[in-house]
Amino acid sequence: MSVALSVNLNAVAQLRNRRNLPWPSVIGMGRVALNSGAQGITIHPRPDQRHIRFSDVGELLALIDNEFPDRELNIEGYPSDDFVLLCEKHRPKQVTLVPDDPVQTTSDHGWDFRVSYKKLSPIVARLKGGGMRISLFTDPNPEVIKWVTQTGCNRIELYTGPYGATYLDPEQSKEELERLVQTADTAQSRGIDVNAGHDLTIQNLSALLARIPYLAEVSIGHALTADALEYGMAQTVKRFLKVCSGDRIQT
Length: 251
Prior knowledge:
Layout: E1 4-8, H1 10-16, H2 26-35, E2 40-43, H3 54-67, E3 72-77, H4 81-90, E4 94-97, H5 113-129, E5 133-138, H6 145-148, E6 155-159, H7 161-164, H8 170-189, E7 193-197, H9 202-211, E8 217-220, H10 222-231, H11 233-244
Parallel strand pairs: 1-2, 1-8, 2-3, 3-4, 4-5, 5-6, 6-7, 7-8
Helix pairs in contact: 2-3, 9-11, 10-11
């Protein structure tokens, strides 16, 4: 069974925003990714709009609704009042709640569920009531899953940044992978589906899926966009989809 690939377009939007010009087109690159077989698009509209702009959200949803109705939009973000209202306005298939401070460069840790589950629970219920699937950004630590279950979320997204950072250290990579496996297994045993994302590459994705073949979805942006500079967006998406289906790619 293939794992769903959601293409994160934040890096494409950041490149566009370097100039007051409409290219590269976030919508255009999203269309290429979906035409190439990606099952979804991921975006993280931050308050300062430094990459994804609020106007991109409606345009990407229109792209999916009009041309790819069987695909999904995943909106990531910190659950501020403005973010929750944005999600309720657009009603994406999936919302991933992350504990980011607005000034962070990128997501770099999961929720501290011991102190956050009471805050997250009513927000999760509110968004689920609007028909959205809710995923929570989670560090690789099986001990936190007992708190995750208190939130009522549908899924977790495993933060794979520490795993991705071990690309020069095979032994450390094995240790980080084991933490991810233990956390995923614990979540699945509690009835919570598992996504994964952050610094996943063609190289490390194969090992991850070999150990956690039941992953529901992987969200990949930085490495995929970097590879697209070499192979093109369409070919890059197909390469990642091959890995998601269990094939190995020569690198």
